[in-house]
Structure formats: structure tokens, C-alpha cells
Design goal:
The chain is α/β, with parallel strands linked by helices. The chain contains 7 helices and 10 strands. The strands form 2 sheets. The chain has a 6-stranded mixed sheet. Strands 2-1-4-5 form a 4-stranded antiparallel sheet, with helices on one face. Helix 3 crosses helix 4, helix 3 packs parallel to helix 5 and helix 4 crosses helix 5. The two termini are 26 Å apart.
Length: 230
């Protein structure tokens, strides 16, 4: 579960600029949530709170059973290992194959060789890349690279996946396929939070939408596909 209670964030280094104002959000386990908002609305600040890169000026943040205000040292690492991150720019390791990129995150968390041999083919099949396991990132299309990034984020079976503008570098026709993959992962029971500025995608898929404006929640509701989002 993800929960923010009465969260404010002010940046002292920016003269006390208020990035988030009295945010109250609760996302249950297994939900799929779109977070939308224009540049400067507070989306990036919100994500940094969830991964404990930043702390709130006031209020409390809970993620995957952790009270983030009380986390120290190794507990911060444990929190981050319970979250799968997907970025706009893929962040694949160029000299590793598709298989090795996904296996890498499992090796650094000390998963057994047997687990890796079973898990990597499973997640590659889930994202439709079983036949590209031996390819290198430079040999892949943008859509394929993002699917590898999704497989890598899901490989360790995290409780939460955060996708930060995952379709931002992709052609529109590829973007919908990426969201479909994230929906499939969500059907496995993983909570998914997707930040996007692409309202056409949000309106097409529908579901729960949280819209931020000037650091506040302007909209938090469930819509049907094709509905308008303010």
C-alpha cells in the first residue's frame, strides 16, 4: 500500500517554494493508477518521496509497509528493492544482452542461479521478448528497449512498480503496447503507478486518475476509457 497523509514539501534552497501542498493519497495493493499533471505540478517531487530520495517538510509517507520518516541506513535500501523503477530513457546497460540486463538486478540482490534461470525467461516472455534474449540494447527498437526495462523492473517481483513517463520517448503506436504490458503486470497483483503527460493514453485506458496541479490534488477518481480528464 502507498499512502501520503497531509504531506507538504517546501524547497528551502528555492526560497521556500511549495512543491506539494497538503497531499492525501491512498493507493491500495494491486491498484493501477495514472498520475498526470503539467510540468511543475509536483509529479517528480511525489515520486522522490515514494523512493525516499526526498522527505516531506511535514506529513507522513508509507510505502510497502514502511513508514518512510523512520527509515535509516539499510532499511532505505530494502524499501527501494521493494520498488521496480521504469524510466523514460530506459537506462539499460549497453554491453549486456537483454537476458543479462534482466539477470543483473537479480544478481545484485543475491538471487540464486537457479532462480535467475527460471525467472528471467518468465519475465521476458511476459513482455514479449523471448526471442530477443541474446540481443544487445543497440539492436533493439525503442519499444523493445522499454519492454526490457519493464522486465528488469518486474524481475524481482516487487510490490510496487513506478513508471516515470515510460512512453515519453516512444512513437504513439508503441506507447499503447507499453501500457498494455504494464496492465498485464498489474494483473499479476503488482501495484503500478504510472506518471504520464500523455492524456490520450489516460483517456483510452481509463481507470484511477490522480491529477496534480500547482502541488495539490486537483482530481482523484476512476473514469471509463474514453472519458475526459481535466
Amino acid at each position: 500500500m502507498v499512502e501520503l497523509k497531509n504531506v507538504d514539501v517546501r524547497y528551502r534552497e528555492r526560497g521556500g517554494v511549495e512543491a506539494l501542498n497538503d497531499i492525501n493519497i491512498k493507493i491500495e495493493d494491486g491498484e493501477f493508477v495514472f498520475i498526470v499533471g503539467s510540468s511543475g505540478a509536483g509529479k517528480s517531487t511525489l515520486l522522490k518521496l515514494l523512493t525516499r530520495e526526498n522527505q516531506p517538510t511535514s506529513g507522513r509517507v508509507f510505502v510497502n509497509g514502511y513508514n518512510l520518516s523512520k527509515l535509516k541506513g539499510s532499511k532505505v535500501l530494502m524499501l527501494r528493492r521493494s520498488i521496480g523503477m521504469i524510466f523514460q530513457d530506459f537506462r539499460l546497460i549497453p554491453n549486456l544482452t537483454v537476458y543479462e540486463n534482466v539477470a543483473f538486478v537479480l544478481r545484485v540482490t543475491d538471487k540464486s542461479k537457479r532462480f535467475i534461470r527460471q525467472r528471467v525467461p518468465y519475465v521476458l516472455n511476459l513482455v514479449g521478448l523471448s526471442n530477443r534474449a541474446k540481443a544487445y540494447p543497440s539492436q533493439l527498437s525503442g519499444g523493445e528497449q522499454q519492454r526490457v526495462a519493464i522486465a528488469r523492473a518486474f524481475a524481482s517481483d516487487p510490490g510496487l512498480i513506478i513508471a516515470d513517463e515510460p512512453t515519453g520517448n516512444l512513437d504513439p503506436e508503441l506507447s499503447y503496447g507499453i501500457v498494455e504490458v504494464l496492465k498485464d503486470i498489474n494483473q499479476c497483483g503488482t501495484t503500478v503507478i504510472m506518471v504520464t503527460h500523455e492524456h490520450d493514453i489516460v483517456k483510452y485506458f481509463g481507470g484511477r486518475i490522480i491529477s496534480l496541479k500547482d502541488g495539490s490534488v486537483a482530481f482523484d477518481d476512476t473514469i471509463g476509457g474514453g472519458d475526459e480528464v481535466e
